[in-house]
Amino acid sequence: MKMSGQRFDVIARSMLPEEETAEPLETKTTGTVPSWLNGSLYRNGSGIFEVGDIKMKHLFDGFAVISRYDIKDGKVFYKNRILRSDTWNESIKANRLVYSQFGMMEFPDPCKSIFSRFASYFKVNTTDNTSVNLVKHGDAIFTMTETNKILQVDPKTLDPVDKVDFQKLVSIHGATAHPHKDHDGVLYNLATNYQDRKSAYCITASEPNSDKNAKPFDNLRILGSVPSRWRGSYSYNHSFGMSENYFIIFEQNVCVNLFKAAFAKILGYAYSECINVYDKEEVQVAILSKKTGQHLKTVYRCKNMFCFHHVNSYEEDGHLVVDFCSHENPKILGALYLESIRNGTLQSNQSYFTRLVLPLNVDNNTPVGKNLVTLKDSKATAIKRDDGSIFLTCDYLTDDENSKIEFELPTFHYEKLVGRQYRYTYGCSLRDKIFKIDTVNRSVKVYKDPKGNCVGEAVFIPSPDAKEEDEGILLSPVISTDRQSPCYLLILNAQTLEEIAKCEVPISTVIPTSFHGIFDPNVENLE
User: Fold this and answer.
1) Per the confidence metrics, is the pTM higher than 0.90?
2) What is the fold, at CATH topology level, of the domain defined by 5-525?
């Protein structure tokens, strides 16, 4: 089955530099913006897919553009800003791609001598085009991607004010764009370390600095690590799981080949071309203690699939419940090329809300061949095999596997319930639907855009003094598909998925593709 090009190709539309907004623009609001909703929604994503005569190839290649929706006193203003990273600045100056992106190699300087160009093949320029996510750590806002570099941005101007290179602080070479912030403010992330063809997955930790003169992440440290089961390769991970006492790492079968990566410039490989998919291998799930960083000895495995995004994880009655979005085809990472998105030939690769349940109390006396999951109403299984490993089967929270919904970009009441037992989660179809899943009664609510427009990640904002977990609103950026209608910010009732307000930007204004965002209630940042 193919995805509809008419509905989907707008996410690959390249914004022009002159389409950047000079000042915040007031939106035209239909409905009523809740009076208590004050703050800024920041969004980050690939917005510009060309420089000079060079056109990007992959959805993850685009230069970062940050969008900001300022909400105050019932009014909404929109602003976007191209992220002035070194990657952007130097590429624009040179009129070519100076730093390699996910699916695109950098282009050598034609003015250099042959010797200088040859020498440049041995110099790795890691991109700081942090176009995937935003996170607030302490009082600072950072843009992130999957390299060792992140940028601190000014919340008002949206320009970089500082750069953090994790590799200069601890022994890691890259980190995910989805760190977890615990209830005490500690920021954890999954990073990768590789040396001499050996690699490991590391959990890093950083407390918010109380000293205002200290720089964020100065206290970054490695809490624990797990070695890769493959020599010369490590698993690609976009996110990871965290419960109150554990970290969950999926060692997936989509792997980076270290030999190819080391000689990528010489071989002419983009990062995406350094990835191998081991179709016949099972996914291995590693569990680390949050208190000690120690790797649990039990080996958990499940069928071959791919996960971009974890939802939430929690512990219940001696089990570790892990919720995530699973792609049935592990090759989805290599499918998101702009050409196939734009011409409508991108093959549908549905992602499902998926649950694994891991029994924690496993030892030598645990019987082989028996389902160890004892949670009430759970359809997940965990069976010990002869080799001592635990094989896990998934629970999709639906009675009929054929009725599984396409579910990605998950959100929930994160600030209150991360790592804890929760009930409701929200996601979207990557096209025109927003879903709400009740994990207790296994029901689904659906919002469908009436014109088939592309809806973005729905960020949950709780109501003041909310008594129910789902009492609040959802904020979702919507990109118009017909290009003759305005893009807008959609505000939904989080309990019913009914539309509360639609805030349209001027029709001539381009809202770029955004992957992820955060809501900051700090009204002092509003212009």
Assistant:
1) yes
2) Methanol Dehydrogenase; Chain A (2.140.10)
